[in-house]
Amino acid sequence: MTVETVILAMVAAVLYAGTAFIKKVPMDEPEKFNWVKFLATIVLGLAIGIAAATKGIIPDQTSMELQLGLFAGSTAIIENVIKLVLRIIKKYVPLCGGEE
Question: Which helix (H) or strand (E) element contains residue 50?
Answer without folding.
Answer: helix 35-54
